[in-house]
Amino acid sequence: MTEAQERWRKPGVRLAMVALIGVTVYFLVIFVKQSWNLFQLTREVYAKEARVAQLTAQNETLEQRLGQYMGEEGRRLLAEQHLPYVGPGEGVVVTVAESGQSPTVVVAPAANSEEALAALPTWQQWVMVVFTPLAP
Which DSSP string corresponds to 21-85? Predict the structure, then answer.
């Protein structure tokens, strides 16, 4: 046998080669794992940036709506849309909504206006007289 072949037959050289291969595989696995983590984190950063852009656009829209409602006319429109304001001679009719929907508020002529009372049958007029509380 030649001298090169004799060197490889020594147990220390083989053990060193196996250890070197093992360490190389170990670092290769760590590198692949860290590369995969970097890919996932980058993807997560892009998703978060998209969500921030979406929330920024939504915030701008809400700020525009707030600006519309800051004036006197805007406050009046907001009150008409969301508050059951009753004017003189009007009444409020609230319809019960299904789950997930908001109730509808309709301002209708008051039940105690003269026209509405005249249209009711006599027995309903008597019921209203007996059971309707007096207004202050």
Answer: HHHHHHHHHHHHHHHHHHHHHHHHHHHHHHHHHHHHHHHHHHHHHHHHHTSHHHHHHHHHHHS--
